[in-house]
Amino acid sequence: MFKKKEKISLENIAAFHAEVNDADLEAVMKKYDREANIRHFEGIPKIIVKCMLIAFALFMVYMNLFANWGEQVRRCLFLGSVIILIFTVYPRKKGMAQKPNHIPWYDWILGIAGSASFFYYVIHFNEIIQKATRIGQLEVVLGVIGILVLTEACRRVTGIPIILVATGFVLYAFSTGLPLRRIIYNLFYTTTGVIGVPIGVCSTFIVLFIIFGAFLEATGISNFFIQCANSIAGASSGGPAKVAVISSALCGMVSGSSVGNTVTTGSVTIPMMKKTGYPPEFAGAVEAAASTGGQIMPPIMGAAAFLMAEMCGVEYASIIQKAILPAFLYFSGIFLMVHFKARKLKLMGIPKEELPKFSHLVKNIYLLLPLVVLVYMIIDGYTMSRSAIFATLVAIAVSMFNKENRMTVNGFFSALENGGKGTLSVAAACGMAGIIAGVVSMTGLGQIFISGIVSIAGNNLIIALMLTMVCCIILGMGVPTTANYIIMATTCAPILITGMNMDIIAANMFVFYFGIVADITPPVALAAYAGSAIAGANPMKTAFNATMLAIAAFIIPYVFAYNEALLFINTTPLQVIQVVVTSFVGMFAISGGMIGYMLRDLNPILRIISIGCGLMLIYPSIGTDVLGIIVIGSIVAMQLIASKRELKTAA
């Protein structure tokens, strides 16, 4: 095992990182994150591909700032460009990326044919709009080609799960007896299919925020988050795990990828946790649970916040405001569990003299200015696109005062390249999610879902919530954050909104949470498996540990389903205070019960009582709140008395 009291120095972080070298990280990324499985280019071809990605990123900026084109035209130009780049950058399967400067002939054909289908729509837009459902045979063929090529592109960058879901929905559309022409028209030529709301949001907001995230990383602002986390929690018991929770929350909200964030921040934090004395499966699970939680962390929420605002028909600022308390409770739950685990194992933290100096961090506080500008502009009424672009410019400006990460010309173009590349997987997934949404809209499948769940649940909200939760976890397995939310919002949220009269934002938040936790819920727990690969731990044990650590994500949605005060909906300040205090105390009790420790070890009976009382506190009722607080207070008092007796006996 590991030495429980081994001291960790920040000077050794590089050594910990070296334990998981670049080759190992690349192997893990390629295994669990298809976005990392890219072709290798050298020489002139490398320069050409880099210029293509940079041109794409700049084109997106131009399109959102200056172009005055119709929505269908903008979205088709966006998808056509994405398809060309995907077939240029991504190989047909894993292992084919190692042969440099090689693009097979069939990829040239697929890339040209797929993009041509969307560009044809742009060129003949007026004619196609006039034809409506009377589109000709050529338009039908091009629509079929466009959808099939997009499907293959999505498979390459996100994997099979979302393809299987979309295929099942399309087969259902055919089973209803709808003709091919009608299906293709609805899925390819209208704004309720491939070029629907998901691609609309992706081509305007998400792409620019991905570019913004790339510049945050290039300018060292992401590293500043980790330094802040070390300063805040590094010295406490089991400090590295707490650093992982805080830094992953801050970095994960921007990255938009549970797996990607697990690998990048985990390459440092997981070895540090192991050196401190955490078991490997627990260390990998902490990083996976925290990185997955980054997707629910305001103000960006892995780009899903923009989609939610569009789906709910509310301002973006309203979404991030309502997401604050649930996110705080989620990370509080993980933080408490790693603290209790550290105390139980008597683990040490990082020596204070080795931590970043507070005075140094204060001097660099200006690095947070891009995020401040972003939030201020959005709240002040600027469009999200313009806000993201201005925040990116501010990130470049503040980097000039940072000697270590000053933005250079090469750094500028590399950030644009990474931003363009990072957009590809999200765009392809949004296109496929649009197909799912289109089928639901075209066939009335959503109403069938609603009727089925409501008939089983009757008027019982808890049964409806549990059935919806199961649907979300199954449909969300292996699906990227943005596409995940779109699928949930299209298929599952209406069950709660229409069938159970639940508030639209509360319903969307509910399905979003359970779609996200699919990344750490066995059997398809990609983020947990990535964490286990870095930790050298058993994948399934890591996944179960991650699920335990993320228990808050399985409880909090039920809280705001029954008590909308947690989302600042139809509430008073006193109600908000009550739900925050009782929920936090409830998370304290559940965390202690899960780990088996509070102030000292808990026996099995007290663990069960603690978890039960925690659930009582989370349930919105004065009676359960009072009873839960009395019992938990009694357990804490008993532990205090026992600890004092031990001290007296030892003396």
TrEMBL record:
What keywords are annotated for this sequence in UniProt? Membrane, Transmembrane, Transmembrane helix
Q: Name one Pfam family in it.
A: DctM
Alphabetical list of NCBIfam families matching this protein = TRAP_fused
Keyword Membrane listed: yes
Please report the name of this protein according to its UniProt entry.
Answer: DctM-like transporter
Transmembrane region(s) = 47-66, 72-91, 103-123, 135-151, 158-175, 195-216, 323-340, 361-379, 385-402, 423-442, 448-476, 483-504, 510-531, 543-562, 574-597, 604-620, 626-642
- Residues covered by the TRAP C4-dicarboxylate transport system permease DctM subunit domain: 146-573
